[in-house]
Specification:
The chain is an alpha+beta fold. It has helices at about 20-35, 45-60, and strands at about 1-10, 65-70, 75-80, 100-105, 105-110, 115-125.
Protein backbone atom coordinates (compact mmCIF):
# COMPACT_ATOMS: atom_id res chain seq x y z
CA UNK A 1 0.00 0.00 0.00
CA UNK A 2 1.27 3.45 -0.84
CA UNK A 3 1.28 6.27 1.64
CA UNK A 4 0.85 9.92 0.75
CA UNK A 5 1.25 12.50 3.52
CA UNK A 6 -1.34 15.21 3.96
CA UNK A 7 -0.54 18.48 5.69
CA UNK A 8 -2.37 19.90 8.70
CA UNK A 9 -5.55 21.72 7.86
CA UNK A 10 -7.84 23.70 10.13
CA UNK A 11 -11.17 22.01 10.73
CA UNK A 12 -14.33 23.96 10.30
CA UNK A 13 -15.82 24.22 13.73
CA UNK A 14 -18.56 26.48 15.01
CA UNK A 15 -17.27 29.27 17.21
CA UNK A 16 -17.59 28.93 20.94
CA UNK A 17 -20.27 31.31 22.17
CA UNK A 18 -19.20 33.96 24.69
CA UNK A 19 -21.53 32.43 27.29
CA UNK A 20 -20.04 28.97 26.87
CA UNK A 21 -16.51 30.40 26.80
CA UNK A 22 -17.10 32.31 30.03
CA UNK A 23 -18.55 29.21 31.71
CA UNK A 24 -15.66 27.00 30.55
CA UNK A 25 -13.16 29.52 31.91
CA UNK A 26 -15.06 29.80 35.20
CA UNK A 27 -15.08 26.02 35.65
CA UNK A 28 -11.38 25.77 34.78
CA UNK A 29 -10.49 28.60 37.21
CA UNK A 30 -12.34 26.73 39.94
CA UNK A 31 -10.45 23.53 39.07
CA UNK A 32 -7.16 25.44 39.27
CA UNK A 33 -8.20 26.89 42.64
CA UNK A 34 -8.87 23.42 44.06
CA UNK A 35 -5.83 21.86 42.40
CA UNK A 36 -3.54 24.53 43.87
CA UNK A 37 -4.78 23.96 47.43
CA UNK A 38 -7.58 26.55 47.69
CA UNK A 39 -5.21 29.45 48.23
CA UNK A 40 -7.24 32.63 48.81
CA UNK A 41 -6.48 35.84 46.91
CA UNK A 42 -5.40 34.08 43.68
CA UNK A 43 -8.64 34.73 41.79
CA UNK A 44 -7.10 36.87 39.04
CA UNK A 45 -4.16 34.51 38.53
CA UNK A 46 -6.46 31.48 38.45
CA UNK A 47 -8.81 33.20 35.98
CA UNK A 48 -5.95 34.31 33.73
CA UNK A 49 -4.44 30.81 33.70
CA UNK A 50 -7.86 29.27 33.01
CA UNK A 51 -8.52 31.73 30.19
CA UNK A 52 -5.15 30.94 28.58
CA UNK A 53 -5.71 27.17 28.87
CA UNK A 54 -9.27 27.22 27.51
CA UNK A 55 -8.45 29.50 24.58
CA UNK A 56 -5.40 27.38 23.69
CA UNK A 57 -7.42 24.16 23.89
CA UNK A 58 -10.18 25.60 21.73
CA UNK A 59 -7.76 26.90 19.10
CA UNK A 60 -5.91 23.57 18.95
CA UNK A 61 -9.06 21.44 18.98
CA UNK A 62 -9.87 22.48 15.43
CA UNK A 63 -6.59 21.27 13.98
CA UNK A 64 -6.83 17.99 12.20
CA UNK A 65 -4.25 15.99 10.35
CA UNK A 66 -4.66 13.22 7.87
CA UNK A 67 -2.86 10.41 6.13
CA UNK A 68 -3.76 9.12 2.70
CA UNK A 69 -3.20 5.44 1.99
CA UNK A 70 -3.80 3.71 -1.33
CA UNK A 71 -5.17 0.16 -1.08
CA UNK A 72 -6.01 -1.79 -4.27
CA UNK A 73 -6.40 1.41 -6.30
CA UNK A 74 -8.57 3.17 -3.70
CA UNK A 75 -7.20 6.08 -1.70
CA UNK A 76 -8.36 6.31 1.91
CA UNK A 77 -8.09 9.61 3.74
CA UNK A 78 -7.78 8.96 7.46
CA UNK A 79 -7.94 11.86 9.90
CA UNK A 80 -6.42 11.74 13.35
CA UNK A 81 -5.86 14.13 16.22
CA UNK A 82 -2.23 14.82 17.05
CA UNK A 83 -2.91 14.61 20.80
CA UNK A 84 -4.07 10.99 20.49
CA UNK A 85 -1.54 9.85 17.88
CA UNK A 86 1.02 8.51 20.39
CA UNK A 87 3.89 10.62 19.09
CA UNK A 88 3.17 10.22 15.37
CA UNK A 89 4.45 13.17 13.36
CA UNK A 90 3.61 14.02 9.74
CA UNK A 91 6.40 12.86 7.48
CA UNK A 92 7.08 9.68 9.45
CA UNK A 93 6.09 7.67 6.37
CA UNK A 94 7.95 8.66 3.20
CA UNK A 95 5.62 9.23 0.21
CA UNK A 96 5.11 6.06 -1.82
CA UNK A 97 6.41 3.77 0.93
CA UNK A 98 4.72 0.47 1.76
CA UNK A 99 2.85 0.31 5.04
CA UNK A 100 0.65 -2.25 6.74
CA UNK A 101 -2.97 -1.10 6.91
CA UNK A 102 -6.06 -2.57 8.51
CA UNK A 103 -9.50 -1.21 7.60
CA UNK A 104 -12.37 -1.76 10.01
CA UNK A 105 -15.52 0.12 9.04
CA UNK A 106 -14.71 3.82 9.31
CA UNK A 107 -11.45 3.11 11.13
CA UNK A 108 -8.09 2.75 9.43
CA UNK A 109 -5.10 1.52 11.43
CA UNK A 110 -1.66 2.13 9.96
CA UNK A 111 1.32 0.28 11.44
CA UNK A 112 4.27 2.56 12.12
CA UNK A 113 7.94 1.59 11.86
CA UNK A 114 8.20 1.57 15.68
CA UNK A 115 5.42 -1.05 15.86
CA UNK A 116 2.80 1.37 17.20
CA UNK A 117 -0.51 1.78 15.40
CA UNK A 118 -1.78 5.12 14.11
CA UNK A 119 -5.57 4.91 14.36
CA UNK A 120 -7.49 7.18 12.03
CA UNK A 121 -11.07 7.83 11.01
CA UNK A 122 -11.72 7.31 7.31
CA UNK A 123 -13.31 10.53 6.09
CA UNK A 124 -13.02 9.98 2.34
CA UNK A 125 -12.59 7.18 -0.17
CA UNK A 126 -11.30 8.12 -3.60
CA UNK A 127 -11.44 5.74 -6.54
Amino acid sequence: MEFTPHSDSPASKSPLSETNLHEAIRVRAEEIYFRNGRIPGQDIQNWTQAEDEIRTEFQNSGRRTAVIVKVNGVQYVGEYRAETADGYAPGEFPPGSSVLVRLDGDKMMVKRSNGKILETEVVQRIG
